[in-house]
Amino acid sequence: ALAENVRRERLALSLQDYRDEIGKLFAPFTRVAAFNPHAAAPVARSALELATLDERNRLIAEPYGRLVVARDQVNQGAAIVIASMAEARRLGVPEDRWVHIHAVADCAEPPLLSRESLEHSPAAVQAISTALEVSGQGWQNINATDLYSCFAIPIFNLLDAFNLQRDDPRGWTLTG
Questions:
Q1: How far apart are CA 27 and CA 3, in angstroms?
Q2: What is the distance between the alpha carbons of residues 91 and 164, in angstroms, rounded to a whole number?
């Protein structure tokens, strides 16, 4: 919430206007989640519903209502299995399910209070910049992206850092 409010202040937005921005960011995520059988909350919600504080969407910490933060029923995990093409074929993995890794990067985030700006995540930006550089690709070549966060600020941070539009037609989640 602290980092989010630093960004809000920089943008000179009221709390409600900033909640509206968070609602606009996450409404498309809920539309994706609504069709994901594994989603913890498979319900499409409007930006207005996400941004409006009420009894059901109570304030958690400014500027977050309950509907725009991760909740305890969410237990995400991820894994990637790396195999040669021969092994993938032997295991019967359909080729349309293969993911070819072109680059990886790993960075350590400095503690929040020692960052140049509390709203920014320099390690996330550097890791993505490095992976794009090593792969020889740019955002314009990325067709499938899943940005996950318990809060809006890490997603806003990446959109801001790379000058990406919140409403990019490619979307920012595959899972919701």
A1: 21
A2: 38
